[in-house]
């Protein structure tokens, strides 16, 4: 019987479960979500809130921790076995290198998705009694976008793992890209806007600026969740480089739809976040596979 990427994915998932990584990720994610809910309840922040309000507030927290969990789960997927020598044993079976890359990406993605789904189950069980509200459609959509975010960063991590030859380099790439997206992306986007337009972006700016901003999957996630919950999800890190007074501007004025003059282009609509996620899933995996295909594993 021939073996395929499905066998790699199944074996990788089983190995992760046996190594207790799945349990560590799940317990960590669920524990953080529970802490968020408990702190909100103790402080009285959930007294007059709906489930939709809860999901909107939680997104600011999730946009940091889910990518971090996914990167931890994926960055050692291939390079760890490459350095230990077990990868040569795996490739001694009739697996192709593409089976290894894509099988491990899928196996690790299932791990991360399972942790996220379990976390949202806990949010439902705790959040409904706190708010007296279910908002099933919003809950499913937010959970779905969160799973897509987790899968995107898992694929990115596995792509890095496939493209690099040492654990240190893989870790440096994973941390560097995460820092770029979380902290430096605003500076990059504002800097490019200033070079082209000669001024910092104000409350209203050119549509291409917001497209550049939303090319970051973290920003795409924020905007998508904001559209689902009809709110503004604040960034986890805000440098304040735009020519905007956040103290004098309401959350509704900060939504992308309110900052673009005229009709909002299709590429700035919330559904386009799925395209951003897909690009950040496919391209790093393709680059990682290409480098891994040509690598000398000896």
Helix proportion range: over 70%
Give the CA-based shape.
globular
Cα separation of the termini: 28 Å
Gyration radius from CA atoms, angstroms: 21 Å
Mean pLDDT: 85
Number of H/I helices: 13
Strand-residue proportion: under 5%
Number of strands: 0
Oligomeric status of the shown chains? single chain
Structural class: mainly alpha
Major beta-sheet overview: none
What is the ordering of alpha helices and beta strands?
HHHHHHHHHHHHH
- Give unreliable regions as ranges: none
User: What number of structural domains do the residues give?
Assistant: 1
Provide structural commentary.
The protein is mainly alpha-helical and 298 residues long. It has one domain. The chain contains 13 helices and no strands.
What are the SSEs and their pairings?
Elements lengths: L4 H14 L2 H22 L8 H24 L4 H6 L1 H6 L5 H35 L4 H28 L3 H31 L9 H8 L2 H13 L21 H4 L1 H4 L13 H21 L5
Structure characteristics:
298 residues, mainly alpha, single chain
Give a summary of the structure in a few sentences:
With 298 residues, the chain is an all-alpha fold.
């Amino acid at each position: 019987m021939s073996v395929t990427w499905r066998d790699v994915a199944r074996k990788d998932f089983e190995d992760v479960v046996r190594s207790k990584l799945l349990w560590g990720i799940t317990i960590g994610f669920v524990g953080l979500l529970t802490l968020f809910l408990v702190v909100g309840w103790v402080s009285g922040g959930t007294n007059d809130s709906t489930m939709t309000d809860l999901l909107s507030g939680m997104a600011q927290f999730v946009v940091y921790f889910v990518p971090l969990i996914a990167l931890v789960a994926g960055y050692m997927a291939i390079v760890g076995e490459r350095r230990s020598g077990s990868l040569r044993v795996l490739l001694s079976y009739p697996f192709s290198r593409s089976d290894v890359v894509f099988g491990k990406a899928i196996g690790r993605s299932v791990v991360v998705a399972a942790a996220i789904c379990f976390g949202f189950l806990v949010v439902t069980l705790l959040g409904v009694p706190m708010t007296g509200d279910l908002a099933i459609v919003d809950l499913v959509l937010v959970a779905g976008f969160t799973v897509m975010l987790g899968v995107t960063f898992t694929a990115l991590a596995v792509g890095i793992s496939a493209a690099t030859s040492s654990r240190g380099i893989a870790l440096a790439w994973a941390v560097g890209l995460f820092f770029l997206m979380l902290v430096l992306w605003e500076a990059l986007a504002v800097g490019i806007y200033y070079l082209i337009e000669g001024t910092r972006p104000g409350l209203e700016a050119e549509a291409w600026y917001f497209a550049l901003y939303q090319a970051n999957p973290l920003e795409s996630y924020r905007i998508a969740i904001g559209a689902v919950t009809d709110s503004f999800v604040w960034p986890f890190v805000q440098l304040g480089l735009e020519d905007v007074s956040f103290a004098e501007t309401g959350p509704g004025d900060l939504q992308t739809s309110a900052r673009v003059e005229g009709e909002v282009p299709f590429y700035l609509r919330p559904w386009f976040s799925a395209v951003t996620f897909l690009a950040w899933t496919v391209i790093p995996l393709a680059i990682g596979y290409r480098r891994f295909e040509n690598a000398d594993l000896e």
